Amino acid sequence: MNRISRRRLALVLSAAALVLAGCGGGEAPIPPPTGLEKSTILVGAQPTSYPVALYIAQAEGFFREEGLTVQPVSITGADALSHVESGVLDLTQANYVSTFRAVTRGREVKVVADMYQAAPGTFALMVPQDSPIRTVANLKGRTILVNDLRNIATLGVTAQLRAAGLSEADVTFAEMPSPDIGEAVNAGQADAGLVVEPHITANKGALGFRVLADTMTGRTADLPIAGWVATDDWVLRHPKTMAAFQRAISKAQRLASGDRKVIEATLPTYTVIDAKMAAEIALGAYPSRLDPARLQKLADLMLEYKYLRRPIDVTSIIAPDAGVPSGTGPDGLADG
Predict the structure, then answer these.
(1) Are the C-beta atoms of residues 186 and 207 closer than 8 Å to each other?
(2) Which residue would you say has higher pLDDT here, 327 or 212?
(3) Which of 9, 43, 118, 123 has the fewest CB atoms within 10 Å, measured from its CB?
(4) Which residues are CB-contacts of 61 (< 8 A; sequence separation ≥ 6)?
(5) 3-state SS, residue 226
């Protein structure tokens, strides 16, 4: 990205961040920073259920308690890492599959905190109610829509295909944005689609779709999906700011894990999910700290399915964990 376009992008994102930050008018002023290298940070987030802890932390004052002002900036998945690398964003939401692939290509990024983990009912292969496809094995020779051709969507589907005795070569994957997949399949543009919440619930209700397979079962059960990411350089230069962010996010993740009602109340404030749908959709898990074993499981599966060029040790890309209280397990509950 050249200097001029980077400046323009920075202005656009900064303006959006200020608008979002102003939505919570009437809040108490942020106290003076207490030794933080940077007291105001821009954080990229998508309008989905994944980064709900960011907005819970804001609403509950967890960032303010740390002397930190966090300005959310709406992003798409494709631009996440490039924006932290360019310095436009300080941290960003990023899915682990893309992050691990980027690392094997020489990108210098660190995972700062966990965000979202798959759970039953959150990723589903769906077909119309009257489809002749009754099992995953029936997908041979068929076209499947996914939101990304080499990401968690195809990884989950491939695992299900292998369990049914098929391979990626037995089907055709086509790419389409998640919100459009249901209508496209319904119109006959493909035979099945990999759908995530809230679109699973929406497609069941509006289109009468049925679930052919839950793609986060078996070898893909409990896979980590997304986390908060920064560059190696940012982590080195902002250890106190990072620790403040980690502490606040960990509190919010624990709150989300223990009280679904908090999530239901928060989702309508930054997504198109209304209160009724928020109460109906399946939700994943919100771990309060990173679990290297679970991240390694994903990296090893990616290597096996040739999503990675070389093996990676995930501990090498996890930032120092300065923010999570001792005695807190990966599910946000106390150990022991």
Answers:
(1) yes
(2) 212
(3) 9
(4) none
(5) strand
Q: Which of 227, 230, 232, 219 is nearest to 298 (CA)?
A: 219
Of 13 and 285, which is predicted with more confidence?
A: 285
| Contact present, 192 and 185 (Cβ < 8 Å) | yes
Residues of the chain with CATH 3.40.190.10: 3-118+223-317, 123-220
User: Do β-strands 91-95 and 40-45 pair in parallel, antiparallel, or remain unpaired?
Assistant: parallel
**Cis, peptide link before residue 29, omega less than 30° from 0:** no
The reported pTM is 0.85
- Phi, psi values for residue 53, rounded to 5°: -60, -30
pLDDT digits (tens, 9 = 90+) for 219-262: 999 999 999 999 999 999 999 999 999 999 999 999 999 999 99
189: its two tokens: 């543009």
Q: How confident is the model at residue 24 (pLDDT cuts 50, 70, 90)?
A: very low
Name 50's Cβ contacts closer than 8 Å, sequence gap at least 6.
93, 115, 116, 225, 226, 284
Q: According to CATH, what is the number of the domain 123-220?
A: 3.40.190.10
Contact 267, 278 (CB under 8 A): yes
More confident residue, 219 or 15: 219
Per CATH, the architecture of 3-118+223-317 is what?
3-Layer(aba) Sandwich (3.40)
pLDDT digits (tens, 9 = 90+) for 262-296: 999 999 999 999 999 999 999 999 999 999 999 99
- Sequence-distant (6+) residues with CB within 8 A of 323 are 113, 242, 243, 244, 245, 246, 247, 248, 249, 250
Rounded Cα gap, residues 76 and 228, in angstroms: 14
Plot region of 222 (φ>0 → left; ψ -120 to 50 → alpha; else → beta):
left
The rounded distance, in Å, linking the Cα atoms of 331 and 268 is 24
Q: And the tokens for 319?
A: 């930032």
**Is 283 strand, coil or helix?**
coil
Tokens 């560059």, located at residue: 231
Q: What is the pLDDT of residues 163-181, one digit of tens each?
A: 999 999 999 999 999 999 9
